[in-house]
Specification:
By secondary structure, the chain is α/β, with parallel strands linked by helices. It contains 14 helices and 16 strands. A seven-stranded mixed beta sheet has the order 4-12-11-10-7-5-6, with helices on both faces. A three-stranded antiparallel beta sheet has the order 13-14-16. The radius of gyration is 21 Å and the shape is globular.
């Protein structure tokens, strides 16, 4: 075990960490249900769903069976000029679940790549519709959409993770941060946002936002009415509305998609993360027939993107099985149960010094501190309580697997409160 860790530390990069990191990663030997089995024998609950993806936990029998079944016929085949049943069936399931009007599906490699594809769709449509000067995106401060260049350009340029790249990214237009909380007063924000919109030239192609929950930008919940206002603006100005549902999709917020809280439909929607239940990397971009027609009318005559592993059969097969498991469950009741347990279990954190806010939405629970977190120290405290977490910035949070029992959730919330209680 020591040899493996030593090699890892000497040669393997980890996300958002220096190569010469003082932190030693934990070696995972296996995983089942909502628990990781570490090489030293500890079995913590994974309160992160492996970065919000493993909603059914690990080694789910139906997902395992789908993967094995597909591997017995073919693991991969190019999607250029060919097609296959797993992709067709997954597209069918996605369109059945999606907000009304979404009619076409483009399969991508990852969430960040799906955002790149969505931005290309918007730009190509505007060219196809005779507006080649519409090359900018309008978005919200506080947002996060991925680590590739197009996606970085629509992340928060001040408080986000990509400030060092500002000078080389496409220049986009940012609306103020939306007000915090589902029931927040919208009028002051609308006045500020309207002033930004009124000052725009005819250069905007689309609006892109994470609906109702800004994820890696700060786990901020905002009113669904913001989405309705943005939908109205897009309709009035000829912009497309792109919803990044990579983190919010598949019931995480209490509705199947974040858009459902507002009762709206986007023109383009990105999904990923939980799409395959955490088994394989896969994302999808859904759009309306009008968007597809506009793209076909552009000078290229086709959407100019085509990943090598587009619609990988293994990923599509396990994704279809994951959606079946979700839709055949009483997911709305399960998410409400999880939300109640999170709200109850995290409530004691409100009384702790250094805690700025405690909030929940669906199967998301957040303790926000008034100071930056020592990530390794907070994670170690949670691990002592039998829970794996990965805090960031000033946030100690959980997005647990949907299979988590009430006892599991009590353990998770207890660990988060203990991590928040740790003195600076």
């Amino acid at each position: 075990m020591d040899d493996l860790i030593d090699f890892d530390r000497a040669h393997v990069w980890h996300p958002y960490a220096p190569m010469d990191s003082p932190a030693t990663p934990l070696l995972v030997a296996s995983a089942a249900g909502n628990r990781l089995t570490l090489a030293d024998g500890r079995e913590p609950i994974d309160a992160m769903s492996s970065w919000w993806a493993a909603i059914h936990g690990y080694r789910h029998p139906r997902l395992d069976a789908a993967l094995h079944r597909q591997a017995d016929s073919m693991s991969h085949v190019m999607f250029g000029g060919l097609t296959h049943e797993p992709a067709i069936e997954l597209a069918r399931r996605l369109l059945d679940l999606a907000p009304a009007g979404l009619d076409k599906v483009f399969f991508a490699d990852s969430g960040s790549v799906s955002v790149e594809v969505a931005l290309k769709m918007a730009l190509q449509l505007q060219r196809g519709n005779g507006h080649p000067g519409r090359t900018q995106l309008l978005t919200l401060r506080g947002g996060y959409h991925g680590d590739t260049f197009g996606a970085m350009s629509v992340c928060d340029p001040v408080g986000g993770m990509h400030q060092m790249f500002t000078d080389v990214l496409a220049e986009q237009v940012f609306l103020p941060r939306p007000p915090a909380g589902f029931d927040a007063d919208l009028e002051p924000w609308v006045a500020e946002a309207q002033a930004v919109v009124d000052a725009l030239d005819d250069t905007v192609a689309a609006v892109i936002v994470e609906p109702v929950l800004q994820g890696a930008g700060g786990m901020r919940v905002y009113p669904p009415a913001v989405l309705r206002w943005l939908r109205d603006q897009c309709d009035a100005h000829g912009w497309l509305l792109i919803l990044d549902e990579i983190a919010t999709g598949f019931a995480r917020t209490g509705e199947m998609f974040g858009a459902d809280h507002a009762g709206i439909s986007p023109d383009i929607m990105c999904v990923g993360k939980a799409l395959t239940g955490g088994y394989l990397t896969l994302a999808a971009v859904l759009c309306t027939a009008d968007v597809a027609a506009g793209i076909d009318a552009s000078e290229s005559g086709a959407l100019m993107h085509g990943p090598t592993y587009m619609a990988n059969p293994l990923a599509c097969a396990v994704a279809a099985a994951s959606l079946d498991v979700l839709t055949e469950s009483d997911w709305r009741r399960d998410i409400a149960r999880i939300n109640t347990a999170l709200a109850t279990g995290l409530a004691p954190a409100r009384e702790l010094g250094g805690v700025a806010d405690v909030r929940t939405l669906g199967a998301v629970g957040v303790i926000q501190l008034d100071h930056p977190i020592e990530v390794a120290a907070a994670s170690a405290v949670a691990l002592e309580h039998g829970v794996w977490i990965r805090p960031f910035r000033d946030l100690i949070y959980t997005m647990p697997p949907y299979i988590s029992t009430d006892e599991d959730l009590a353990t998770i919330t207890g660990a988060l409160v203990a991590a928040a209680r740790r003195p600076r």
